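thought: fold this chain, then report.
action: predict
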Amino acid sequence: MSGLVEQRGIDLVSPTQRYGKSFDLFFLWAGTTTNIFTVSYGAMLVILFGLSFWQAAAVIVVGNILAYPLLSLTSVTGPVTGTTTITISRSSFGPNGARIAGILSWLMLIGFEAGGLILVYYAVSSLIGNIAGVTPDGGVQIALIIALGAIQMVLPLVGHKLLMVAQKYATIIFAISFVVLAFLILPQANFDNGDGASPAALVSACGLVMVSGGLSWAPSGANFSRYLPANSSQPAVGFWAAMGGFVPYVLLQTLGAAMATVTVGDSLDLSDPLAVPAVLAPAFAIPFLILVAVGLLIQNGTNLYSSGLNLQTAGLKVPRMLIVVTDTIACIIIAIIATSQSTFYDLLSAFIGSMSIWLAPWVAVFIVDWAQRRGSYNLAGLEGKPGSAYWGTNGIRLPGMIALITGMIFAALCANTGYFVGPLAALWNSADPMASPDLSIPVGMLVAGVIYALTNRGSRPAPVRVPGDNSAKVSTTPE
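observation:
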């Protein structure tokens, strides 16, 4: 079993174990994002925010242009260091401070994994209904979710190499499938679906596009690029990582917005996220549902791989394999509970909105730190040992933690998650606070980035690029 299951956690990848090309990152991220989840995000812009199709199309382009450079910048640090994104953030927050980001990132990925598993269940349940004419319920429903959860563990357990191969071929297959889907859907779309939404709704919708894509993927960027040779072109690494997510997100979210204009009405059941593509021709419905299930299982493989690494950075001293199993159990429990609830899109929107409160300040600190160090890191300092270059005070670098916490506070004050409206956001529309825009991303990034840029000047150790073999172990806890 040890020969099949990847044993590496957040250890630095030795130069002798590096492989692949920068272009491979395009297939990794394209395979991860080319699925019905991405289509659903586009539909949410019309269903939940009330955007017209053309408003949604503009928001999709702008939101992704703003978001995917963030994944690009975190990806370029992988070949330089050979370790994961959250581990690299020890240079900003210290080994103990980075634990917070590790836990938050793990919780975020658990949420996305559970959401993916829920959609897989809906797809397989619909598939069974189409073929056998029955709908799983009760014990059968629970057994089906458990079985699907077990299947999704395969890719992350085997590890990075199998993920890269699966994503490459999945990208090709799913791209062809969604082209066919577009030909079936677009002739039915209503491109003049109403007057559209307010400027406040457009701002909030743009935030959802950002956090559903490039912003939420940013903490995972180096997790996969770390396997590339250390001399890989940084512009190429950043470009292909960003394009692998940007292209599918723009195309599929736009398709989702168009699909929502076909199905919005009294007949749409928001408790079933696959109600949007219910307008498909019967001959395409079954193969489409199969592709939905397979695509989401592959995406969840990427999430599960990263979440295990993040939890190790948070200090959990257990093998990555055990974390993958534990995460899967958590996803199964959440999926069983959630499938008994209604309004999937409302739950998904609230979850995504909450993520921006910590993601925006975190990524701002990471990028400012990267810029100040000119992309170079002290690899020995990333090991997390007491007294090392990034140790700080009791394992916490105060500039980073102060910037992160302050940014999170201001992000929360300016947030509108769909169930919580911050007091500063509410000032926009005191008569109807829920109609206020969600400003958590721009405010959180600005506050955290400025504070870190000012407080970290002169306090950071000189950047050191360590040549040769960098296969040292990175500690999950201080020694």
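thought: worth noting. The chain is about 65% helix and 0% strand.
final: tokens above.
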